[in-house]
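tool_log.txt
---
The assistant was asked to compare two proteins side by side. It first ran the structure predictor on the initial sequence, then on the second. Raw inputs and outputs are pasted verbatim so the downstream comparison step can read them without reformatting.
(1)
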Amino acid sequence: MANLPYILSIFLLTLVFLIVFIFNQKKRNNVLQYRELNYSYFYTLPVNQKIELVNLTTNNMSNFRCESDVILSPGYFLAVEFMKKCSFLHRYPILKIKSSLTESSQYLDSVVNNGKSKLWINLASHSGISLKELSFFAKDFLLTSSCAELIYFPQIDLNKHKILILAPHPDDPEVSSYSIYTSYPQSTVIVTITDGLNTANRNFILTSQRVIESLTIPQFNGISFRNTINLAYPDGNLKILYENYRTSPMDKKSSRFNEYRNLNVSPYMPTNSIGPCWISLINDLVQIIQSYKPTIIITPHPLIDSHFDHVFTTLALDEALQICDYFPSAILTTFVHNKITELYPFGPHNSEISLPPFPQHFNNIQLFDSVQVAFCSEDLNHLKFRAMEAHSDLRTIRFPIYPTFSSAFLQLKIAAYNSLLFHPNSPPNSLFRRFIRPHELFLTITSSATFQNICQHAKN
């Protein structure tokens, strides 16, 4: 018993150390995982957007119900203003939505804590149910108003359209648009812009593997080999092409460029390219648009997606559409890499996805005309997981072929880090956590003026 005070002292010191360590790590990761903290959720909606004000029934501004008998369908969002509470136990505030038939959860931004923010509650999981039958349970945030906005974004019937998916990299169609291309395989063409040979990726091998993956993986999911194309522009270089190689090709990339393009068999594959340069990319897109004549184009949002290959894929599309003097019925924009944080979408993989944060200085720009919601069933998400895992760059290499003590210790540290500070068993930036969700979400642009204005701001 004489040693008891020493044991208690050591225990208390260890506990204090762990608490300080966790708080410091949380603070550190807020800085590292967020590129900037001046961001917003207050989108500028189209002037003709129909908004219904809904009164909320609540006692403590935490749990609430809506006084509206609107029957929900995909495209309904409930916009509420809230304030995040300080909490040690829950890193991400959570909103649970329940009815007698269904239940869903939506995770909020963990950093927003200064003043009010806006929460866009995606109600698509509760389609067919009256809004007043839903009960909302907020954890670690409070409403700041007893009134909410019920917004309906009309959904496009994609059965009536020819779809063109522009994928900056080989895995992007599976990550962002899997539910759409598997639902409409006969009327979808997938065009991958780059060869995917990113030497920064530890899974990288200098072969045509990723080009072949982009051409074949969609075939396992219903897309004909005639409807997949890889243009083989050098991965990570679209911005460089735009700035330095507008009319003359990058010589050092030309040999593999032609070799990889020869792997294509699609009749929509452009011919007579002069090599990897910006004008060649524009001409490729012009030829594809003129021959296929898509009425729906899926491409990254250049003001929300942060990856330069994603941004310049859409800027190339903008130039091609102007040359063609053509605009589709709608452009559905994706956002695999968020300008604010790679942690978006927040929460575990089975939680709902909602509208992303965007840089605050874009507050006065109309970033979309509508929102398209595509349903992903559990069975479809199992297939989506397998399709994503088939891409060599997305596989997690947990241990090398010949493990050492240091490699095992490193994996142990990573596991502890992820379990303590993020969602258990999920690396924070994992695409499997972020994009295997009940729905896929697209910001829809139906006006050429809106699209050109967005692209002009992206160039600036």
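(2)
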Amino acid sequence: MSVTATARPLEQLQFRLFRPVPVVAPQIVETPEPSPLRDDVRQLRETLQATVAAKVTSATELLRALDRTRREETIPTTLDAFDALLGGGLPRGKMVELTGRRAAGRFSTVLAALAAATSMGEAAVLVDLGDHLDPQLAEENGVDLRRLLWIRPKTLKQAVMSTEMIAATGFQLVVLDVGLHPIRSRRVPDASWVRLARTAEANGTALLVSTPYPLTGTASEAVVTAERSRTQWLGRGKAPRLLASITTDLMLMKHRHRKPGAQGSVTFAAQDAPASVATKNDGTNRTDRTETRVAYLPALPAAAAGGAR
């Protein structure tokens, strides 16, 4: 007895790993004709008077005009002398450095900038390396704490990195205050300041760096120095003397679009000082010197005057 077996075809034993993909014929999509809006605007301008036609703009032109306006805007600090040196205030998309030693009014200028920005409805950031912010004093001087982000780093490197990261998120005003001399930790490379300036320019952020001595080098748009020139005290005899005001002299040391050397003067008066406490002009007849007076100092005793900033 013989047994025979038939072999199955090879193609039936193989497992097909890839299934054939059906070929789909490409679909032809008709491109719609361009909108005749630009032609309508052009024809409308031709039929109007020249004065009226100049005010007729399309949506594209309006968006471009708004973008140019945003780039040219500045954030005023409400300190007339400081704003005058910068050409109207802190420029958006640029980095400005304010230098000054102890009791030169640097932190008072920072509070003025934060108060002006938050009162305008802008969101602001303070990177406070020196940890000098008093929230109660800041709120009394016009800072809207609900619109303020307070960052307290430990080292200068952390402060610069935090400023760069937060500037890329869209905040309109970012202030970096590195505290008093000596600055904690070593200096950061110059490339870090260049990268920080580019981040501010790319995001349209007004960046203010407050330092006891120059740090940013050539990366900043402008450098303003502050130096305490005069102090005024309240009290006579054996009565405790209170600090009434500090006058700070400002000088424009560098600006990419303005002539350096312009000067100004700002008087920071204590909140409890009487209205009679005022600062007179120092007698100079220079046209590039301006002066203003604001109240951004607490009433300090004479022993604590050395720590006023």
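---
observation on (2): The longest helix spans residues 59-72. DSSP finds nine helices and eleven strands in the chain.
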